[in-house]
Amino acid sequence: MGNPNNANHSTLFLLPLSIFNSSSLCHSRLRFLQTMGRKFFVGGNWKCNGTGEEIKKIVATLNQAEVPSADIVDVVLSPPYVFLPLVKSSLRPDFHVAAQNCWVKKGGAFTGEVSAEMLVNLEIPWVILGHSERRALLNESNEFVGDKVAYALSQGLKVIACVGETLEQRESGSTMDVVAAQTKAIADRVSDWSNVVLAHEPVWAIGTGKVASPAQAQEVHTELKDMASKEC
């Protein structure tokens, strides 16, 4: 089993676009992160939203953001697939771009899918895999997500691997069982975590009116680290 503790980045939420304003990227919060002595990762997933003109405006705003240097924080933005070339060509060089998904194997007769090889060809460095919406709506199992992560890594992509619990799972007290199973399915297939960011995504706090506190997120992160240290 691979060790997530060997990853270069901290495990944390994928932050929504609401973290951005017209002049800064939560600069005060990132200054706080800088004092903690670890490299942090901020990801923005735009999901299935936006037009060409809207994307251009967002990128223009982000290009003016005040952000600590790249040795303090990595910033990765994930627009819809059709806008990847536009964002990549116009985004400031210290920010990076991620696809929102890729297929589990080499391309072929898989209508509607995007292969890891295609992303590499477009020079897209990152991909999000295991997002809760794909797990729930498209029935992507833990094992399937693990296979996707392994294949994407084998093709040279960096992976944002999502894990997280639903409201029912949290209220039933099974959060760590769920997250541990999701993580283990990836770890069973991955030995080198240097190109993986493990992102805890509390599904119950998305569009429900409920808010996940930093303490709740840290609880999951701590348990994941403990699990990794015991099993690896």
Automatic annotation (TrEMBL):
What does the organism's lineage look like at the top? Eukaryota, Viridiplantae, Streptophyta, Embryophyta, Tracheophyta
Record's keyword terms, sorted: Cytoplasm, Gluconeogenesis, Glycolysis, Isomerase
Q: Which domain of life is it from?
A: Eukaryota
EC code(s) of this entry: 5.3.1.1
List the GO terms this entry assigns under cellular component, sorted alphabetically. cytosol
Regarding protein family, the annotation reads: Belongs to the triosephosphate isomerase family.
What are its GO biological-process terms? gluconeogenesis; glyceraldehyde-3-phosphate biosynthetic process; glycerol catabolic process; glycolytic process
State what protein this is by name. Answer: Triosephosphate isomerase, cytosolic
What does the annotation say about its assembly with partners?
Answer: Homodimer.
UniProt catalytic activity: D-glyceraldehyde 3-phosphate = dihydroxyacetone phosphate
Q: GO MF annotations for this entry?
A: triose-phosphate isomerase activity
Q: Which SUPFAM superfamilies match?
A: Triosephosphate isomerase (TIM) (SSF51351)
> Which species is the source of this protein?
Corydalis saxicola
UniProt xrefs under Gene3D superfamilies: Aldolase class I
